[in-house]
């Protein structure tokens, strides 16, 4: 039996006039999945632009079977049909779940409207994969251990292009995010990876949906 976690990131581009319908479907899909489907571990989405036309969706399943059970559910089918109809652009990355850690579900619901979400895309130089993996896992472990304001960090690399990494970070508010940027361990991480990467881009997202099955840890 394959117990490998399934981590997928999807970019959706929709029309401004379809946003309200999209949010309704995304919220319904999340509420029907968590906590009802215990092996659907995380579902979240956020938009990048002011009009909410550029959206990113992350889903984490405990195993391929868990993903199949989710896909077979009526609410997932309704969500997929809506996206098929309204999406102007859709791209999904199938990621290796390298390190994922979250705070308990209670914390995710306490001040969700103040969440700061950043999606980082990092391209690693050839031959530096192991060094980068070590550096980012150390940084994420330090951040979760030392910073009270870190709610969730999801890091994975593209199965079809392992040098391409995606890191989704969720902080309780802007103050806690700035404290993260000013931390000693983050400065050390930046110094450690500066010669290991080709490029990096960051997308600041506004949370639309986000839920997890309590504390989730994958390493």
Task: Summarize the model shown.
The protein is an alpha+beta fold. It has seven helices and nine strands.
Topology:
Elements: E1 6-14, H1 19-33, E2 40-47, E3 54-61, H2 64-72, H3 74-86, E4 87-102, H4 105-110, E5 116-124, H5 129-146, E6 150-158, E7 161-171, H6 174-181, H7 184-193, E8 197-212, E9 217-218
Antiparallel strand pairs: 1-3, 1-4, 2-3, 2-8, 4-6, 4-9, 5-7, 5-8, 6-7
Helix pairs in contact: 1-3, 5-7
End-to-end distance, in Å? 19 Å
Largest sheet: 8 strands, antiparallel, barrel
Number of helices, counting only DSSP H or I runs of 4 residues or more: 7
Q: Helix amount, in percent?
A: 25-40%
Mean pLDDT: 93
- Quaternary structure of the protein: single chain
Q: What is the CATH domain class? A: Alpha Beta
| Rg, alpha carbons | 17 Å
Main sheet strand line-up: 1-3-2-8-5-7-6-4
User: Unreliable stretches, pLDDT < 50, 5 or more residues?
Assistant: none
Q: Strand pairing plus helix content: what structural class?
A: alpha+beta
Strand content: 35-45%
Provide the domain count.
1
- The dominant shape is globular
Number of strands: 9
Q: What fold name stands as the CATH topology?
A: Alpha-Beta Plaits
CATH architecture annotation name: 2-Layer Sandwich
Order of SSEs: EHEEHHEHEHEEHHEE
């Amino acid at each position: 039996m394959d117990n490998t976690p399934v981590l997928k990131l999807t970019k959706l581009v929709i029309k401004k006039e379809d946003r309200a319908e999209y949010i309704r479907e995304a919220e319904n899909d999340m509420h029907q999945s968590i906590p009802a489907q215990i092996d659907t571990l995380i579902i979240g989405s956020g938009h990048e632009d002011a009009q909410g036309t550029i959206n990113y969706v992350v889903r984490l399943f405990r195993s391929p079977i868990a993903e199949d059970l989710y896909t077979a559910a009526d609410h997932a089918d309704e969500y997929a049909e809506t996206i098929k109809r309204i999406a102007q652009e859709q791209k999904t990355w199938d990621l290796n779940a390298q390190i994922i850690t979250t705070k308990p579900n209670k914390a995710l619901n306490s001040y969700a409207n103040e969440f700061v979400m950043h999606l980082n895309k990092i391209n690693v130089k050839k031959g530096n994969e192991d060094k980068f993996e070590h550096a980012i896992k150390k940084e994420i472990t330090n951040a979760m251990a030392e910073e009270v304001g870190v709610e969730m960090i999801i890091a994975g690399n593209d199965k079809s292009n392992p040098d391409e990494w995606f890191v989704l970070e969720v902080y309780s508010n802007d103050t806690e995010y700035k404290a993260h940027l000013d931390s000693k361990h983050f400065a050390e991480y930046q110094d450690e990876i500066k010669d290991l990467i080709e490029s990096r881009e960051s997308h600041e997202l506004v949370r639309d949906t986000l839920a997890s099955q309590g504390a989730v840890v994958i390493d």
